[in-house]
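Worked Example 4.2. Consider the chain below.
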Amino acid sequence: HLTSPHLTPLCLYMCSQSCLILRALACYPGERDLAEKCEHVGFGMVNGMSTRKGTVVFLQDIIDKAKQVMVERIKGGEHTKVEQSGAEVDRVAAQLALSALVVQDLRGRRVKNYDFSWDRMTSPTGDTGPYLQYTHARICSIVRESGHATPTQAPATYSESNEFLGCQHIQRLLGLLCQRDLVIESAIKHRDASGLVQYLLSLSRAFSTASPTHRVKGAEPNLAQQRLALFSAIQQTLSLGLSLLGLTPLHKM
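Applying the procedure from the previous section yields the following structure tokens:
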């Protein structure tokens, strides 16, 4: 009930301009207590879309078009690992389309306006949802094909002088992994997922930079275990982050 003393706070998700509604509500003597219990969680607008001008693109149309782009990309990919059955292609394409939409919408600060772009949204590279899914699936593939069991804890031979830990790319990845909980806490506190999205993108870019020179398959066993432990931690972090965004992490692409 809106007058319950236990209602703290009531979050109202409306565009930033709607803060005037709460200010007006507070002006009514009988509604002031209710207004004080409400928290306005404002968000920006999508530039170029207007219901009055008839320039709105409906959500289902966006998802359908993005899904079609992903289906064509999967079927045309030379190195795709997705089974070419209609159901599997459809499932993966649907998740890629949803990932593209969610990441484009959430990667900027909640209160900022942004320009909608079909090309940017569906691109497999750059700061996009498909790029996050590709990175997650790529690490899953590395783990599957490594020939090593996934370590449940860091190898006991780690040392500060270790060649592995001395690499700046590895240090960058470890530093990002240590930030995970703080990033999630901040997203919850500020009711803004953009920090989490940017964190996942930074982690994916750092992995892409490090992986060519830190292969697991064919490496000396102890070194392979170290790299596998790190890559597994990155995969688990990406999986958690995608899940928190309401997305299903893909294991094959």
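Strands lie at 10-15, 38-43, 46-47, 114-115. Residues 84 and 122 are 20 Å apart (CA to CA). Compare this with Example 4.1 before moving on.
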